[in-house]
Specification:
By secondary structure, this protein is mostly helical. The chain has five helices and two strands. The protein has a two-stranded antiparallel sheet with strand order 1-2. A hairpin with a 5-residue loop joins strand 1 and strand 2. The mean pLDDT is 93.
Amino acid sequence: MSDDLKAHVRDLLTERQAHLQLGDVLEGFPVEQINEDVGLPYTAWGLLWHLWFTQRDILEFVRDAEYREKIWPTDYWPRSPGTPQSWAQMAQGFQDDLATFLELFAAADPLAVVPNGDGPDGGQQTWLREALLIADHTAYHLGQLVVVRRLLDASSS
């Protein structure tokens, strides 16, 4: 059961199933417009950076015994605009960190509590919970990134 569960989670995080993957959304993205205000409380750059940072935070949480909790929301959103170079770096960093998380997940018992996984409310944070958190968070914000892209496309017409 554990290997089947791990395969399902891996597919959820890496395959185009019921939702888009990061590469789908970023392909052909107008990088010259990543900082443009489209009337929403975030830009394309802000969303990509937030996706990268949050996933990186989860990765640090599961693998670093010295992990320190970040400050919400201050630490989770960029403080400066992006560039085409930083856009590419964040996209690659997101993919690299996902691959690292999946390597760790493959070696773990999905129902085992991660090293830092004793929640403040007594709840336990398992490998499966963290993987599903990445999937849910990514899907949510990729949807927002699609909306931003559509608004950018509409404003360019």
